[in-house]
Specification:
The chain has helices at about 5-15, 95-110, 120-130, 155-160, 165-170, 175-185, 190-195, 195-205, 210-225, 240, 260-270, 285-290, 290-305, and strands at about 20-25, 30-40, 45-50, 70-75, 115-120, 135-140, 250-255, 275-280. The chain has an 8-stranded mixed beta sheet with strand order 1-2-4-3-5-6-7-8, with helices on both faces. It has 13 helices and 8 strands. Strand 7, helix 11 (about 260-270) and strand 8 form a beta-alpha-beta unit. The protein has a single domain (about 5-310), classed as Rossmann fold (3-Layer(aba) Sandwich), CATH 3.40.50. The chain is α/β, with parallel strands linked by helices.
């Protein structure tokens, strides 16, 4: 059985009038089991939400009331939330991620899906769209999609990527107040102030799970190793961005400048044939600053590119 929704998560879902259903995703070819949480319309168009590194699926909750007409599937990526951990040392991140996400869709019996990805989740979504285009209907990118558009990870991430030191830093318990301060540095002080306390507590608890430190540190280590290669691995080349055939919505907070400027992101996104670039007020997770604005943009985009679910193998079975 998949790990259930914890008490902090359950209170958070309930506070938004959402009824979550936990879905277990056994990926036998990869030897691990992931967890997803389903909300919204059971017969709606499926939308897969992929959160960023060090965060959790619960972070999406504040804007989900804007998306209740869709079948929302909130994935806990490996090592996060209720999903098994993973040691990425020596792993080709792009190939492994493609297999992982395609495996999730196979278990869910969904042939193609809209994907909403935040930060590293956006990078994973772009990889899948390029390598398995038949599985992706559209992509929504929120915040800097890791290194996809050429962003350079900062010193904090470089330290976390350092073997032993990074795992030690991530595995060291920190008080809740200190954890809030760490999140504020990456997501913005206003976002953390506006976020429901239970969201932060749920994420804090998830960061204490066994295997979390190894998962995050080893993923970052492999990414940095890839960036040292020539040409850099994992960064999307202009011809790849130009080869995307799926419609792409980019939602960027005007204060999300830590990893990449808005201008640089717009220049990279301009290479995508069918894209919309929206700058909103906020930081790296702008929907915490303004969930209605961000949720409304995403709902309108998904509605524009959604059609009846005849492409799904059997999406109505999810959660049964």
């Amino acid at each position: 059985m998949p790990p259930p929704v914890g008490k902090a998560e359950a209170r958070l879902f309930a506070s938004y009038g959402l009824q979550p259903q936990v879905v277990g995703l056994p990926l036998r070819s990869l030897g691990l089991r992931l967890r997803a949480v389903q909300t919204g319309a059971r017969d709606g168009n499926p939308v897969l939400f992929i959160h960023g590194l060090t965060l959790a699926a619960t972070h999406w909750i504040p804007m989900l009331p804007c998306l209740i007409s869709f079948q929302c599937l909130l994935l806990d990526i490996p090592g996060h939330g209720g999903s098994d951990s993973m040691d990425f040392r020596g792993v080709d991140l792009r190939r492994w991620s493609d297999e992982m996400l395609e495996g999730c869709l196979d278990v869910l019996r969904i042939s193609s899906v809209h994907i909403v990805g935040h930060s590293y989740g956006g990078l994973l979504a772009l990889w899948l769209a390029l390598d398995r285009p038949r599985r992706v209907r559209s992509i929504t990118l929120i915040g800097t999609p890791a290194v996809a558009f050429g962003a350079r990870p900062d010193l904090d991430l470089a330290l976390l990527a350092t073997p032993l030191l990074g795992r030690m830093m991530l595995a060291t318990p920190v008080p809740f107040g200190m954890y809030r301060a760490i999140l504020a540095r990456s997501l913005g002080a206003h976002a953390i102030h506006a976020a429901p306390p239970e969201l932060l507590r749920a994420t804090h608890l998830a960061s204490r799970r066994r295997g979390y430190a190894t998962t995050v540190s080893s993923f970052l280590h492999e990414q940095f190793q890839g960036l040292k290669r020539r040409p850099p691995q994992y960064v999307l080349a202009p011809d790849e961005l130009g080869g995307l055939r799926e419609p792409v919505l980019v939602v960027w907070g005007d204060r999300d400048q830590r990893y990449q400027s808005v201008d640089a992101a717009q220049s990279a996104a301009a290479l995508i044939p069918h894209h919309i670039f929206e700058v909103v007020h906020g930081g790296h997770e702008p929907w915490l600053d303004d969930p209605v604005r961000c949720g409304g943009l995403i709902a309108a985009f998904l509605a524009r590119y959604s059609s009846p679910s005849e492409q799904d193998l059997d999406s109505s079975h999810v959660g049964k």
